Every structure is written in structure tokens, then in C-alpha cells.
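User: Show me sequence and structure for the first protein, then do the same for the second.

Assistant: Starting with the first protein.
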Amino acid sequence: MTHKIAGATSALRDLFTVIVVVCCAAAAQAQAGRGGISGLVADPSGAVIAGASVTLEDIATGVKQSTVTSSGGLYSFMSLAPGTYKITATEKGFQTMVQDHVRVTVDQTTLLNLTLNMGNVSQVVTVNATSDVLDTSNSTVGQLIDSAAIDRVPLLYRNVFDLAQLSAGVNSANASPNSSDSMLSIQNISSGRPGIDISSATINGAIVGSVYYMIDGSPIGIAENNAAAIMPAMNIPEDGVDEVRVETQNTPASFQSGAAGVISLVTKSGTDKFHGDVFGVFRPEVLSANEYFNKQTQLSSGMANTPPDFYRYQEGAAIGGPIKKQKLFFFGDYEATQQEEYEGIDYFSVPTMAERSGNFSAMSFTIYDPTQPDFANGPLAGTRQPFTNNTITNPNPIGMLYLSKMPECNLPSTTSCEAATTDVVNNYGIPGMDPYSTCVSIGSRAKSSASLPAFPSTGWRSPRPMYFPAAGTPIMLITPPTGATSWWPTT
């Protein structure tokens, strides 16, 4: 009978211990953008050890935290910055237990149970490595992309959001599982935005624009104007990101993601030693080759085979280190991109050289003089007076100067377009060049025993210049009298 009571008591104790561990792990999990470590301290027989001292040390910074186990032998460290830690457990009558290289990852709680053997405190048992443990504290499905993977995976545009494609169930903007189109032909929310095409990625079939974004536990998603879609407010430099976690299923309610998936970034911070890097990627325009259709257009219009300008330059640097050893640390980085890329041939309508001087005598239509009154008598009474010989006799100097800045027509050829007897639409072709310039920077980021949020990064995209007016835009060729409107040819 005594054995049965003891067995029941042991079973209840074990059940209580499991419940406490799960509840504590769930509480630690709620610290979005951070991690945690929890577990039990017990003797070799499985009996829990209450009041044991447990010390946690961040290997990178030397910062230490301490706690004692509860009456159930439970210890817990919450809201930890992702990284590698060392745990030391001590209690009178037991050997000191040291668990080294304990890995903490973003949005996860590491469950680590410690066993103290009988002996003196001065006796130290050190475990130098731990294997990855299956997280049984929550049902979230996701993947961690650590700093080693970030360093190894080639990112053409250094866009860390593209790393989400390494996770199962993530479909990218161009529907290709392992490629990205961060800059090219991305014009609306249904296919992403330049530099943040991740906004159009879908996770496990969720609707476009429903992915949620976090950085260091803070939401950075913003609503797209006039669209029910979320997009990241900023890009973080690749050298400033320590980890990326992609939650693809059963995301916690704390993320407010609508269960459509979460991409969580953790930024780097300084350590007890100085570390840094400098990089540069240079692709000058002298290495450009001509695009096939652009070449055919040039040759057919009598122009030389001239490759369009294309260049891409990326440069940046990062540095981190201690401000005060084991107390205060800093990290900062900078990244910039200057790029111009070919996007196909753009077509425009430009006036011929004769039209620029006001001479429309070769045209089949008639132009009228807005400075003269309508005919008062005769068969043309009530109609407008045309220019003599279809030629403007008093061209406006401002309009002439404006037209002189336009390029000459070149389609179908420079000769045929100048000999046109009627207006020719799209008589000038030029390689479309899309300038792209960004600058993203975390700036300085401080860290003490608890990490401070990163300062917001900044970024911009230079607009594409408009060289010519749209069809139908009035161009002032003559000086109208007071109260008159601008002139435009009438067919």
C-alpha cells in the first residue's frame, strides 16, 4: 500500500512539474522578438531540487543573470536576446553543473533540464555542447534562418526578406519557389513593391498581403494605401540582421497576424569585442551588353549598336563593440545601393524639325491662328482663320527653347520620320532606364543587460524622370493675346 501511495504521489509530482514547465515556456514564448530558457533542476533519481542557484551568462557580452529554482525545481530566464549562453547550476551537497553553448533563438523557448550529481560544490561537471531539442511547449510551425545561413545564402539585392523563400509553404511574387524579383517589373501590391516584393508572398495559400512583419519584437507592418494588404515599413541591411524566423502555421495570437504567417527579424548588437566588416559590389556600365530588341531597333533606325547604360553599385559597413565592458555595447551599420537598369524600349511622340520651327506645310491637316478673329463675311463667315501656308509666323521663343531640348525622331528611321505628312505616334524610341537608389541604415544601437530597440532605418527610391509630355499636352508655340488659350494642332 505504501508503494502505491508513493507511486501516485510521484506521478502527481511529475504531472505538476510538466504543467508548470509548459505554462512557463508559454509565458516566455509571448515575448515576441526574444527568446527564453527554462527547465528543471533535479538529482539523478529525478527528485527536484528547490532553491538551487542558476546563473545565465551571455557568452558574447559576459552579461550575467541569476535566479533560484522554485519549490518545484523550476527555473526560467525570459526575454533573452537570441544568442549563445552558458548556464551554471549550484546547490549545497551537489556538484556544480555547467551547461555551455546553449542556443537561444528568436520567438522560441529552449527547454533545458539540469541534473546535479551528489558531491562537493567545488566539483564541476561541464557539458560543452547541446543538441537541438524539439520544442514541445507550443504548436507553432516555422523555420529559423540563423546568421550562418544568412552569410552563406547569396542575396543578389541583399534583401533579407527574400530568405523567407527557404521555408516550406512560402510562394514568392513571381511564383518561383527559389528566386526573387525584388527590383524588376514590380509595380503594384498584387506583385509586390520594389525592394520589398515579400509583401506579395503567400504562406500556405493565405491571401496576398496578409503576412505580418516583426523586428526585435516590434511590428513594422504598414497598410498599403487603398488596399487591404500589409507590407514592411523598412528594409534592414543584411549585415544588421542576426536571425530570421518564418512562422508558417499556428502563429501565436500575440503576433496579431490573422494566422497568415509571420516573418520576424532580430538585429545584431555589439559584444564584448570589436567586430566589423566593409563590403562593396561594383558593376560599372562599361560591362553592359546590348539587349536584343534594343539592338534591332537601333540598327533598323540607322543608329549604332550601343548598349544601354546599366550599372549597380552597393557599398556598406558594419561595426559593433563594447562601450563599457560587460555593461554597455553598441552596433551600427550602413548600406547603400545605386542602380540603373534596362527595362525595355520606351516610345514617345516628338515633333519633326520642321514642326519645331512652326512649319506645318508638309502636313495634311490645317492649323489655325488663335490671335486672329473669325471670318466676318463671305462663305467662311464664322470660321477660324488658318495660318498662311500652314506656317506659324510668330513662334514663341519659350516654346521654341522647350522644343529644342527634345531629341530628334528616329522611328521607323531618322529619314522617314522627318518626311512624314501627318502626325506619327511613337516616332522616337529610347532604352528605358529605371534609376534606383536606396540607403538603409540602422544607425547606432545600444545594448545593456536588455537590448534596446533598433533605431528606425531609412530608405527611399528615386522616381523615374519623365522626359517628354504625354500625348495631347499643349505646347505653347506662339504668344497668344491676353485671355487666349494655348494652341494645339487641329485635324
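Switching to the second protein now.
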Amino acid sequence: MKALEQHYISKIEGHGYLKIDLRQNKAELIVDEGERYFEKLVIGRRFQDAHYITSRICGVCPVAHQMAAIKAVEDAFKIKVNETIISFRKILLSAQIIQSHTLHLYFLALPDYLGLDSTLSLADKDPKKLKAALNLKHFADEVNTHIFSSGYTIAINPITEEKEFWKIVEENENKIEKLTFSFNSPNLFGIKNSLNEDLKDLQKEYSSTKVSLELENPDGKLNIPKNDLTKQSVEYVTKGGGQYSLKIKGKYKKVISSKDNIKTKTFDDLDIHINGSNQETLFSILDTIFK
């Protein structure tokens, strides 16, 4: 007998086998990482689907493949994300690394070092190590939970121009019956004004996800000054944090809303709505993770 080959080795990433050459007194562990061909799978699909599809490349590290797909799409459209988004992604990737290393160390490698069949046997032989494994897994899960329960809601609203709002106000002076602002509370990072803080307080106290402000004068004499309340409301809405509508007095009463003045950016044949505002850092989350 010249050589032995064991064609199945478990507990590794990829496909591995052990090749033993008896004549040369040599043993070799060979691991093949198979191609997934996901690059071909995403051709012809919507770009919004890329990160969902590529996450299935690996059940242990889906986040890394998701981030790679998102980055590829952003590079294709020349989209520049701000530092806070980058920080969030680094946190997600760090949590995934913790989960991946915990899986490999405690569930794949450690049983072999301790002469056990599986990690489940640790419950009897070394419960402290099992508890450590579960605590690390729980910690990584908590990181994601804190990020997605940070008090921000996901909402889709038109991004408009502030100047368009003021243009409507000027063109319909002494004809405006009602002005309505509808805010998602809070929806935006990076807006640092009293309105944003008030919306956060309302959400915390009332668990509200939407807040409406309605100003009305049935005679069409509604005055809309350029004070802090109006300017902050317009800024919040036009950056995607809600919607506004103005009811105009006349023979045929007309309602003009932010939906009528959507700001778009065109890439070839695709319309992509991009909010380029900066995001504020969630210091409490970072403190929880890194303190």
C-alpha cells in the first residue's frame, strides 16, 4: 500500500481530506475552498437584490458578503456614504467576527482538543467553557439588537428642495388655508436642531413613530414666517424625514405636497433617490460595545 486518503474531514471551512504517503512517511492535509459562482447569479438581477443573494455564500459569515455587495453597488453608482454609516458597518462586521470565531473555537475545534464528540458534551465535562461560548454568541447578537433598536425608524419619503417650499409659499401669498407637516420621529441622523430633539423626546415618552403639525386659517390668510419652527420643519421634511402639504384657497381648492417636488438623481436609465445628509453617532451603542 503506497498511500491512504481520507476524503471526508468535518469541522473545517470548505472541503478537506487527509493524504498519507506511507513510503515517504508523509501526511498532508488538503483543503479546497470551492467556488460559489455568485457573481454569475447576480447578473441581470436588480441591484437592490445583490446583498440578499450574496449573503447565502456562507451561513457563518453572511454579513461580510452583504457588505461587499453593498460596497460594489455603491462604487458602481459612485455613492459616498458618511462616516457614521461606515462605523455601523464596522460594528456589524466586528459582531460577525465574534460569532464566526466563537463557532470555530468552541463548536468546531475545542471538542477535538478535549477529546469530546461535540460541544454538547461540554455541558457535563466543562460547563464553564460552554457558558463562555454561549455568552460570546449572546454578546454578538446583542450588538445587532442594539443597533436595530436604537430608536430610529426606517421610512421612505420624498427628498425635495427647500427652495421649492418657499417658492410655493410666495406664489400663494394670502391664499393658503392650511399647512401640514408630517414627521417621522425621529427619522434622520445628522440634523442637530430643537425640532429633532423634540421628536426624539416625544418618541421616548409616547412611543410615537409619527408626529403631525397642522396650521390652519379657513380664510386663506395663513401666515408662514421664516422662523426657527418653520425652517427646521422644512429642513427635516425636505431631507426625507416626512412630508408637507399646503391647501390653497380658490374656486378649485388645490393641495400641493412634497410629493409634487421630488428631488432625483439619474444614473443612465435608473432613478436613485439619495439622501446625502450626515448621520450622528450613537455614542451609547459604541460605549456599550467598546467600554
